[in-house]
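Troubleshooting entry. The earlier prediction with pyridoxal-5'-phosphate gave an output that would not parse, so I re-checked the input for stray whitespace and re-submitted. Clean input:
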Amino acid sequence: MKKIPFIDLKRNYQVYKKEIEEKVLEVLKSGVYLNGPNTKELERVLANYLNISYAIGVSSGTEALFLILKALELPKNTYVLVPSFTFVSTVEVIIRAGLIPYFVDIEENTYNISLESLKESYENLKKKRKKVSAIVVVSLFGLPAPLKEIKDFCEEKGIKLIEDICQAFGAKIGTQKVGTFGIASATSFYPTKPLSTFGDAGMVFTSDKTLAKKIRILKEHGQTKPYYYEYHGINGRIDEIHCSILLIKFKYFEKELKLRKAIAEKYIKILSNLFPQVKVPYFPENYESSNSLFTIRVKERKRLKQFLEKKGIETKVYYDRPLHLQPIYKDLNFRNGDLPVTEKLCKEVLSLPMYPYLKEEELEYITFTIEEFYKK
Ligand SMILES: Cc1ncc(COP(=O)(O)O)c(C=O)c1O
């Protein structure tokens, strides 16, 4: 068996090569590289897919999150509740927007924010007379967070709900897609994401007209008319080449989601037999994951990872060190032991190869090798 990469991006490109190359060439020849017809069309198509009023193409998922926080004009130095078990972007933008992150623990079997910990964190801050202005909730590895319950909580407390759906575009609870529960949401089209391009790009979704208008201004340097600046903005544009690629990829997106789902189901079916040594992810009823990553939990992670590596199987650890224990966030005064579930999972999680065109025999080889490890 040849090597199985964690994500084979070249394989994905090969599937759509002809269509993509033709379209990219068309854009190159058109002379329109920014704010053109592909951008408009992608925004229209994806707003429609999410069943939301506004979609704004931006340069990355990180900038999408930043632009939302900036446009909301939340009071400076107020608190934003956020999981520690996420990619650093989710938290770095809070600081860039002049706000203070407050880390919340997660549920062991879904890897997503724990409602109990969320409520407890809110009460802790309230006792200290600290104002909480927002929550940035992440639907991690593709699985929706408990968004309905979080939305109710936010409405009760009068705080803004912002969704980081960078790993979960296409996921849903019942028929409602993630990205439509809060005031706004941010997605990423980074090459490894469920809907991806071959570079950096992202999108903001909202049903709030004023917010959408403000984000459009902020992503163009805060310019309200040509060369007239009313706000401190950024260069946060998406470009036409990425939009044209995404329009092609989107045609096959539902098919790819189904392929990902079938892979996740096969992994779960086979690896569940290795319980309790191997714990597979749990999907609550009615929760449809976009299966961007497939992550198991094992006590002997280091040895299993090395064993798989020797057999040619690449795996990754998302995330090895929680954000509340990262050097950059030491001033926030979180300590080892503060978020026990997050800290435990950081020691146990292991993500296995997952991409729509992972072959049946490759999946069988991966699961067979894991079984071999536990039979030794
Ligand atoms: C949960 C999460 N948030 C934010 C981001 C940032 O997206 P981007 O890399 O497009 O800036 C990513 C992806 O890398 C992510 O996984």
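This one parsed fine. The chain has a mean pLDDT of 97.
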